[in-house]
Amino acid sequence: MDNILIIRNLRVAVEGKEILHGVDLEVRRGEVHAIMGPNGSGKSTLAAVLAGREGYDILEGEVLYNGMNLLEMEPEERARAGLFLAFQYPVEIPGVTMATFLRTALNEIRKARGQEPLDPIAFLKIARERMSWVGIDPEFLQRGVNESFSGGEKKRNEIFQLLLLEPQLAILDETDSGLDIDALKVVASGVNRMRSPERSFVVITHYQRLLNYIVPDVVHVLYDGRIVRSGGKELALQLEERGYDWLRAEGEELVLPSIS
Amino acid sequence: MATTELQTRLVETFHRWLQESNHHRWSPHHPLRRIALEAFQKMGFPTSRHEDWKYTSLAPVLRPAYRIEPPSPAETSSLLSQLPALESLPGPHIWMLTGIPVVASLPPYVRLDSLLYSDGEVPPWLGEILRPDAETFIALNTAFAPDVATLSLAGQAKEILHIAVVTSAVEEPQLSQPRLCLTLEPEARGRVLLSFHTLGSYPSLTNFVAEVRLAPNSDLELILWQTEPSESFLITTVGAELDRSARLTVWTLALGGALIRNNLYIRLAAPGAETQLFGATMVSGQQIVDHRTQVEHQAEQCLSNQLYKSIADAQATVTFTGRIYVHPRAQKTNAYQSHRAVLLSEKATVNARPQLEIYADDVRCTHGATVGSLDEDALFYMRSRGIPLDYARALLLHAFLSEPLKSLSDAALWEYADILIAERTHLQAVKP
Hints:
heterodimer; A: 260 residues; Rossmann fold; four-stranded antiparallel sheet; B: 2 domains; ten-stranded mixed sheet
């Protein structure tokens, strides 16, 4: 089995403060990995670095995506190579319609895959179909990107984009936060529909709840900038029961010696 | 105040006209002209020490040796054969050729009077909304305008009345002083497009002045179209007085010209009057665009709303000065103002000055001025979906700048404005 993503000893600082202290992670094609951890453990930093957001200093380490040096690629190159980030806080872009935004995005990605661009009619057909999968009104295509969307609509819109762009590796950054149980089920069913031996997921979450619906192959615990524990889906249940505090003791034992 | 060479030549010219002319109609002997000349002599051209011209230097504007004389009838006829093609705009109904009105065709709801065109008179209220002693360029236009085009709109106009203001500087630098008076009859609804153009490659200064009277319940949409790339100078002053429940909407699209100064003086003189002012400006190179708005709430229950957006690139400058004056009797006033700007270069400049003077208690008034760069989060969001950076930028700029024009009621004009903004923001050029 080949790895779609390999992270080795990734150390990242933001404004001079080290957030990730050496993350190691391997994700194989077709797998769903969950990364859990308390607030401030570096989950969102990891997602941002993988997607290519500016403002993060790579101190050490490497990230291989399909064998390519991911950290040297521009964000748009990563997207065209099949990487997708579902944002924790999707951005509102008033005045740029969803239709313009998504048709441009899809055609850029299709071009990179060697496919023909879609004309507006073909685009609308596929967009409407995928919107129906996550219960978004097709009328939203004529609205500004995320403009005046509710919190739940924004999250469903992220999953709609996942369904439309069909990435090889999707990173979901706290997609469950702020969702009620019905919205959570819609989001999870969208993700499950996309699961395939060719596609991998990294699901970042604070809570175990989402993992009832998106059942992971591997669960990792990110704690204080390091992955301190990895296991099967039962690890998520353990965390749900015991919280993160029991890891603190172990984490500190694990972490402290290596700092000195 | 330093007396410039241009000022001296202007005064000399006026006195020469006095000697040469007969005493008819709008001759230099007209009392208002002489009052205006005196006011001009007293005020002179403002320097940057003048508060209203703090950010915009007139030095380059006053330098060329402009011809002051308006075109002769023979010159006007020959100009008619070289008029610019205004391809995507509706065909002009009226040309103002270096200050001389020439009618192409008039819709039935419009009446035009002009000294030269219809042997008319100047309206008795000329100079009342824009008093010559209020400002140098008003004084100058009042003293020197070769004609006064007086338009009266009645009924419910469906089509846009297009007035193309053209200054010809084909053989020498030219000073042009078109003057317009516009009346909307009670209940009338009208749409007027004022587009500004130049002919020839010599420098020109167009000093356009319009006085607008809106009778009760009338509704005017006025569009100032300043999109032609040129090295010309343009100063426009529009003064409007709104009677009971009248509505005035002004859209200004300022993309072209070396220097543009737009003065909008709006007086909400009776209860229920409403005005909406929208502006979209994009400048690059050494361009200067300076918007000055003044909304005076004289009566109660009036509404004013201003939304201006600007983009400045290279070494260009945008200035917005928005004054809102609420008189003590203007209770239940709603007054809003917003200027938002994006700077694309470290050498570009944006000046924004809200000036609020409120003397009534029951007033809702907000104002805001922001200057920023493009939204980095939005750029990253688009790039993370595979959209190239330069296209993402253009999409954001285009969306930003077209917002104030979205309310344009004429679909064809909106589409054309949208295309021009797309061109200026390089949206098509960088489209993947």
